[in-house]
Every structure is written in structure tokens, then in C-alpha cells.
Predict the structure.
Amino acid sequence: MNVFVVGGAVRDALMGLPVNDRDWVVVGSTTEAMSAQSYVPVGKDFPVFLHPQTREEYALARTERKTARGYKGFAVQAAPDVTLEQDLARRDLTVNAMAVPEEMAHQPPSAWAEQIVDPYGGQRDLKTKVLRHVTDAFAEDPVRILRLARFAARFADFTVADETMALMRQMVEDGETDHLVAERVWQELAKGLMAEKPSRMFEVLRACGALKVLLPELDRLWGVPQRAEYHPEVDTGEHMMLVMDMAARLNTPLAVRVACLMHDLGKGTTPADVLPRHIGHEGRSVKLLQKVCERLRVPSDCKELAEVVAREHGNIHRNAELGPEALMRLLERCDAIRQAERFALVLQACECDARGRLGFEEAAYPQAGRLLKAQHAALSVETAPIAQVAATQGLRGPEIGAQITRARIQAIALAPL
């Protein structure tokens, strides 16, 4: 049998990027032969094995044939006579359809020379920075639209080949994206959100029409105006992309990026006669994002943070106008006492929103510091003695809570905010 390292490991090595995981393809072998060499079978849909020592994945060379809509509608053939070129042909992009023999895999790319198996022009497209589909079989798997968009976010200076964009548009028109499973959509979106330039993912999805199918709540934001004195970029969709790229620039975690993505969804439902004002968009955003999170099965920590940010970002931006009592109410609505660490993430998302505006990219965000000081003051109050004294006075439950709240308000009033 012949073994090759394939896909992302070859691509990343040629680009001078660190290679964290390697995928291997085995040509000329069988399931029985792999098991006899102590490889551990783990694949459900096709023959994949774990190496007995390294635990890296080794897959038998295979071909795939479309049998039904969606990403699971494939018949897989793995056999000793399947060639490496046939296996590479089923891959999504040319830059992911290259292979290097096992004996060369751990050598530096400069030593690979003529050893790279590249039947579809992956090296050419790496040099010209183009994302191009390998064959028209790309159209058989709608997940590949999301994967390409995610790669566009990771490799932000790459362009999408015209013929590949045309193929993706045709896939959307043919209804292929209607059959995507929520878990796969979320999986790819999450990876793209954590990439170098998340806005590129949404630009690609919008350009091919997939965004309107997968996230219509976001897609409708383009063309919706905002007040220019607050948003020089005016267009709400453009604002969202600036916010997303600011979230990446500030190296925020996934939950913050999800909150950034969904904080202004309500602006897409603002009645036309009141534009460019968006009165009450915060509440509408919460309702819309709840539906999105349910549809895509977004993790609860991401959903809950997004709800707080969508509901309170305006109040957080304007917190300099708030006195001690109003600040305490804001902290309570953000659950900043009970979930103290999460509050920093709320403020981080709000900073991305404030700086994700044309000309405000380098602006300071003192609102976060002021609220963190207010939170610190509130948390510094020792609640046990207050509760004990209140209990001796015959107070109970909510009455004791009110005493503690008054003490926290006083602490905020005395704090140098």
C-alpha cells in the first residue's frame, strides 16, 4: 500500500503556516489489511482508521457518488483500485487537493520538489491566491459553500474564482442549501467567526445567495440606513461587518463574536417610515436572535450572552448618563453580580459595536472601564453581615435583598467612576 499526507496539512506547509493536524490517505489497501496492522477503525460512513501509535487519521482512498440531496446523500466506494487522483478529485478546493508521499511528509516543503501530487492546480492557485473548486462534483455537497466561505475568512487575501462563484449561485438556485443540517451550518459558521476576517465569510455567502437562505435575519440588514451622525458607514449590513472584524482584531472568544453578529438584527424589521431611526430595535433583536439560535442550535452560553448584549448595548454605551441607582439596575439586568466574569464579555462585545463604525476603529471605549468599576464596587459589599442584621430585624427574602441592593448602590455612589 502507498500512504500520502493530504489536504490542509500540505496547503498550510506550502503557505509557511504551522501544521497542527495531518490527514492521511492510504492507496491500495483494504479494511482487513489495515486492521491486521493494528489500525483502529473509527469511520461510520467510510473507512477511517487511527494509527496505532500517533492516533492520526488514515482513510482508505475513496470515490463518492451523489444519491440524494444534502451532505449525507452520497454512496462511498473505498477499494484497492481507487487511485490517489480519484480520491483528490472528490475534494472541495484545489488548494486542498494536493498530496505528498509519507516518506516526505515530515521534510520541509522546500525538499518536496517534484514529490507533490497536484493534478488539479493547487500550487498555482496558492500562488495566485484563488479559491477554486476541483470539479463540478463540488455542487453535490452544499456544505462546501460554507467551507469555502469559511476559508475566505481565514485566508482573507484570497479571491473566489468566477466559475466557482457561479457554481455556488447555481447550487443555491437549485435549492441545495435548503437541505443543510443545522449542526453543520453552525459548525462551519463558528469556525468562520473565529477566523482572521469574519466579514469575508458573510460577503461570500451573500454574493452567492446562501446568506439569504441560511441567515435571512442578517441578510436583510444590507440597505437599511442608520443615522449618519452615529454611524458614518450608514448601511447596517456594513456596520455589522465592521463589528465582526473588530471582534476578530480584539481576539474575542466565540460567544462575543456571536453576540456581535446578532446584536442589531432588529434593525432589519424597523418600519420604513421611521428610518433611519431604530426605536425599540433592541427588543426586536432579542426575539430574532432567539429564533436564529434555536434554528441553528447555537450553544446556550453564546445565546445567553447575545441576548444580554442585544438588549442592553444601547444602555451600556450611554452609561455615563446613569446615576448609582440606574447603574445598579443595569448591572442586575446584565446579571453582572451573579455572573461577574461574563460581564466582561458583554462589555467586550459592546466595545466591538462602538468601534465597528467608520472612523471609530481607534476610538477609546471608557464606558467599559466605568461599568467595571461600578461592578467592582457592588461586588465589594459584604452581604453576609447585612443579611444577618436584617434577619434579626425580622426581614426576609426580598426585603433582605433590598437591603443588600441599597448597600451596593451606596458603594457605587462612593466609588471613583
